[in-house]
Amino acid sequence: MSVLLLVVIIFLVLRNERQLSDGNIIVLGLFSGLFIFNRPSDSLLILPILVFVLWYNREKIEYYVLSGVIAGLQFLFFNVIFFYNILGGSFISASLLTLDVTTLFNYLGLLFAPNKGLFIFSLILIFSIFGFWITRKKNTPACRFLQGSVIAMALTVLVNSTFDDWSGGIRTGPGILPACCLFW
After folding, report:
1. Predicted TM-score of the model (pTM)
2. Which of 22, 124, 180, 181 has its CB surrounded by the most CB atoms within 10 Å?
3. In this predicted model, what pLDDT tens digit does every residue of 59-73 receive, in sequence order?
4. CA distance 8 to 149
C-alpha cells in the first residue's frame, strides 16, 4: 500500500508541474495523509512533497494540509483503537530505535548486504545514481523535488537501520523504490 500511495503522490507532483490546479494539491494532501499513517517509518518521504507545496504552491498550503489531516485521521483513529498508539503496528519496532555503531552496519546492510541489500536485489538502482547526477543541475520544480527526495530516502534508510530486526531491502526497498526509479 505504501508503494501505491507514494507512486500516486509522485505522479501528482509531476502532474502539478504541468497543470496547476487546486484539485491536484487537494488529492496530493489526501494521499500524503494516508501515506503517513499507513507506514510511519516511511513518513520522512513526505518532507520533499511538503517542501514542494510550500515552495511552489504556497497559496494552496491550506488545501494540502487540511485534506492530509482529513485523510490521515482515519488511519490515526484505527491505530489508536486497535494498537493503542499512533504508530500502529510499527510500535513494536519503533520502541527499538537507537543510534549506535550497529546502526551504521545496519545502514550499509540495508543497501549492500549480499542477502538483504537494496542495491543487490534491485541492482538496476545503481543507474539511479547516474540519473541523479544528471538532474542535479536542473532547476525545474520536479528536479528540485527529486533532489529533496534523495535526502528523504537516505533518512528513511537511516530510520529503518535503527530497528534491531532490520530486514534489508524488504523493509526499505518498497518504500523508496518509486522515487529511485524516477532517476533512471
Report:
1. 0.80
2. 180
3. 999 999 999 999 988
4. 15
